[in-house]
Write a structure and sequence with these properties.
Organism: Paraconexibacter algicola
Number of domains: 1
Keywords: Kinase, Transferase
CATH topology: AttH-like fold
Order of helices and strands: EEEEEEEEEEEEEEEEEEEEEEH
Strand content: over 45%
Domain DUF7064: 205-327
Protein name: Tyrosine protein kinase
Structural class: mainly beta
Distance between the termini: 65 Å
Shape: globular
Radius of gyration: 20 Å
GO molecular function, one term: kinase activity
Number of helices: 1
CATH architecture: Beta Barrel
Length: 354
């Protein structure tokens, strides 16, 4: 089954309301880029969230190292602003007020991402070159699809894209220099209505797990833990038994893109402080009946401020395929307050008796 592909010009699609239009204030566009340096246990989260109805933006640079980043400010470097003005856009270049710059050298295929901190001790300069098509994605968060087109304004339909990139360049982290050479996903959304109202999205935690093992095996899915695994969300949410646990997944096998029809994600261990999955296994099946199995473990984790109304975490996972091949990539997970409270109860240690 052919997977939809977006045209290159969607990389620069950042519509604003026309004069007299009133868009839902929760309408967003996004650009996400990342990379990892596995041998140093470093992950990078580079993000711009555009809020066209206002218009404002927020985002910046999050660089984390190791697995002890419980609070946002624990990470190795943080320059992330909420309430920035609309970015400067000059041709194919987007620059935020805090200096994160995205230059689309070849829209749909090549992007250069740069940044230098105010004190000059931290900088990055990476070029990201596509190894997959600009695959079309409908939405990320469950519930967004129910709001597509509800604003009733503007000609641009909601959409999104994902693409795996070969990332090369350099990171200087508080004066320490690292070579960057990895494979990482990028993604974006445009004109999605991502509601922040409390209780608006009663859904279990969702996890995003892109993986690149080589040009013959590239896998990606976003799902909640399967119901038959005894998930941590059991008892917190009611999910119809016949509902698939994934809402978006694909695989590139031997150069061909296939739809994934079934995902079973089983979390084996949760971090006792930030509660995200740190050991898990995934079984998936594509539309031809081919089955894939992966096991993974986090080597770096962090709490990320991208969505302050939710608990959002990024990580670097070491994944292993069923034939023993290894991939390192981001694994991201998000959930809301009811699940957070349930996990606090689950991991709360009784105070010692006097």
């Amino acid at each position: 089954m052919a997977h939809g592909v977006h045209p290159p010009e969607t990389d620069l699609l950042l519509p604003l309301p026309a004069d007299g239009e009133q868009w839902d204030p929760h309408t967003i566009h996004t650009h996400y880029f990342g990379f990892s340096i596995p041998e140093a246990q470093i992950g990078a989260f580079l993000y711009v969230r555009y809020m066209p109805a206002v218009p404002l933006s927020h985002g910046g640079v999050c660089l984390f190292r190791g697995t002890d980043n419980v609070h946002v400010t624990d990470m190795e470097f943080l320059d992330y602003e909420v309430g920035m003005p609309w970015p400067q856009i000059d041709g194919n270049t987007i620059r935020t007020a805090n200096g994160l710059q995205i230059e689309f050298l070849e829209p749909g295929r090549v992007a250069r991402v740069t940044y230098t901190s105010n004190d000059g001790t931290t900088s990055l300069d990476v070029t990201q070159t596509a190894v997959t098509p600009l695959l079309a994605r409908g939405h990320v968060m469950p519930g967004e699809e129910l709001r597509h087109g509800l604003d009733g304004q503007g000609d641009v339909r909601p959409g999104g894209s994902e693409q795996v990139m070969h990332v090369t360049g350099e990171l200087v982290l508080r004066g320490e220099r690292f070579v960057v050479d990895c494979h990482a996903p990028r993604d974006r959304s445009w004109k999605q209505i991502r509601v922040e109202r409390q209780g608006a999205v009663p859904v279990p935690p969702v996890g995003w797990s892109p993986m690149y093992f080589g040009p013959d095996l590239i896998f990606n899915q976003i799902s909640f833990e399967a119901q038959d695994t005894g998930p941590a969300w059991e008892g917190v949410y009611q999910v119809p038994a016949d509902r698939p646990s994934h809402h978006y997944a694909w695989v590139v096998r031997d150069g061909e893109t296939h739809e994934i029809t079934r995902v079973r994600r089983n979390v084996l261990e949760y971090d006792p402080d930030i509660f995200m999955a740190i050991r898990q296994e995934i079984e998936a099946e594509d539309e031809t009946g081919h089955v894939y199995r992966f096991t993974g473990e986090a080597i770096a984790t962090a709490t990320i401020p991208a969505w302050p109304n939710a608990s959002f975490h990024d990580s670097v996972f070491r994944w292993e395929s069923q034939d023993g091949r290894v991939a390192h990539a981001t694994y991201q997970e998000i959930w809301f307050d009811d699940y957070q409270r349930a996990m606090k109860d689950r991991f709360r240690v009784a105070a010692p008796q006097a």
